Amino acid sequence: MLSVGTIAFSGGVAITVGVMIGAIGIGGVLLVPLLVYVLGVSIHSAIAIAMFSYLFSGTVGAFEYVRRGSIQWRLGFWLCLGGMPGAYAGAMTGWLTPGVILESAIGLLVLLTGAQALRPESQNAHASDSLAPAVLLGIGVFTGFISAITGTGGPLVLVPLLIWLKVPALAAVGLSQIIQIPIALLATGGNLIFGQVDFALALGISAMLVIGVIFGARLAHRLSRETLKRFIAFVLLAVGATMLARIISRLF
């Protein structure tokens, strides 16, 4: 039985994760560690819960960005089309992969994301119109697969890739919101076929994420993102290092 303090802390962290997802697209990577290390959920169940919750955070995040005109629909169509089969394959692979491998992959991904967040954004980001549909499909497949197998959500994978390809930062975050929806749908379908989803816990987490995403999307359109990015980067680095240290201590 979880204590009131643990439940309150978990809710606060989930809202913070939602703010991070809505503001800069980085945040979902912290949700699985929260479920595993604070709430005691198994790694496979935690990934399934996280993927289901992104259906709601993605819908709300997409709405917030659509009504502000921050979605590039040509890019979004091809990305989402590729994300669906990638997510299904990732969900299937996840249930067949040993938990320690998944934890190690997530911990490493957290560290790399923190390092990526410390890098300055490119100021010459105007190449989005030149991205071919085949390239976008490939990015979508990769994003869907990595998101579903690690439970990190589309934004974590997609935003760094799009910024590297010179897509404007705000547009990249907007696209990462809409891709969560098809990825979450197909990953959840795969999780139900190959494993299970704790819908009761998932709905509670979803509610907290949605609250955070609303505030995060508004922050993204109003405030400087550099300070927020740096804070998030240090949190990610700390969490990633802690996860890997725990895994190493268990192995040795």
List the helices and strands and how they pair.
Layout: H1 4-24, H2 31-38, H3 43-66, H4 73-96, H5 99-118, H6 133-150, H7 154-164, H8 169-194, H9 199-220, H10 226-251
Helix pairs in contact: 1-2, 1-8, 1-9, 2-3, 3-8, 3-9, 4-6, 4-8, 5-10, 6-7, 6-8, 7-8
Query: What is the overall number of helices?
Result: 10
Low-confidence regions: none
Assign an overall shape. Answer: globular
What structural category arises from helix and sheet content?
Answer: mainly alpha
**What is the average of the pLDDT values?**
84
Tally of DSSP β-strands: 0
Radius of gyration: 17 Å
Largest sheet: none
Q: What is the H/E order?
A: HHHHHHHHHH
Count of separate structural domains:
1
**Beta-strand content:** under 5%
State the distance separating the first and last CA atoms.
31 Å
Helix content: over 70%
Please tell me about this protein's structure.
The protein has 252 residues and is mainly alpha-helical. The protein has one domain (11-251). It has 10 helices and no strands. It has helices at residues 4-24, 31-38, 43-66, 73-96, 99-118, 133-150, 154-164, 169-194, 199-220, 226-251. α3 (43-66) runs antiparallel to α8 (169-194), α3 (43-66) packs parallel to α9 (199-220) and α4 packs parallel to α6 (133-150). It is globular and about 50 Å long. The two termini are 31 Å apart. The relative contact order is 0.23. The mean pLDDT is 84.
